[in-house]
Design goal:
Largest sheet: 5 strands, mixed
Radius of gyration: 20 Å
Number of domains: 2
Order of helices and strands: EEEHEHEHEEEHHEHEH
Structural class: alpha/beta
CATH superfamily of the largest domain: ATPase, nucleotide binding domain
Strand content: 15-25%
Number of strands: 10
Length: 265
Amino acid sequence: MLLTIDVGNTETKLGCFSHDELQQTWRVTTELRRTPDEYGVFFTQLFATGGIDIEAIGAVAIASVVPKLDPVLESACGRFFKAIPIFLKPQTQNLIAVVTENPSEVGADLVAAAIGGVKRFGAPLIVVSFGTATVFIAISSAGEYLGVAIAPGIAVSIDALIGRTAKLPQIALETPGRAIGRNTNEALQSGIVYGFTGQVEAVVERIRAEMGVRAKVVATGGLADVVAKQTPVIDAVDPYLSLIGLNLFHRSSRAARRDEQNGLN
């Protein structure tokens, strides 16, 4: 069984694959202060709640944008799973051509989502990832990772607004049902939900114009459904594109190692 880990700045997604089928997923807070042992115990507890035998984990693939956690996770995986994880690096993976000016600057999580997106939905494609940032990934008809547009994420924007405004309350991220809010909660929900919906529509329109093709749009990430329900511009929602991409990356890496070994024999 393969454990895939997508380490983001705010949240970490985990998924277990068996024979290329995603069996179980978790979404947890990214915690910089955990030690390898603490992460190992944490994983063990998660697996227990999901009915996954820790002994069944034979490989680990990671996409991380938090370099400080890379050696911590590598140590935890080695001790608790007896597996050395492989890390997806945008500049060295061979599943999607990254044609930005500096491929090494591209987030591994975004490349994993792009790989998973092309696998699931084909190309051309625009992947809108709703995470700490809202990221629009443009993928050409040839399946190339062209680049991105990055905007503040929904949760980050809410936290900033609430944190800098003394009288505004915390709100549930729900559609208010009307644009003109009749109370503070409705007003906030309207501005946030419909505001981000308008942002998605405007940015997608510009990206499509630059690509010269009406690319399909797929949303991913924990808050994807919030906006996707409000606009027809989003064709599909898949919250686990990065995990699917990591599974494909692991499969590709395993095949490359096998070919290399066969060449040496």
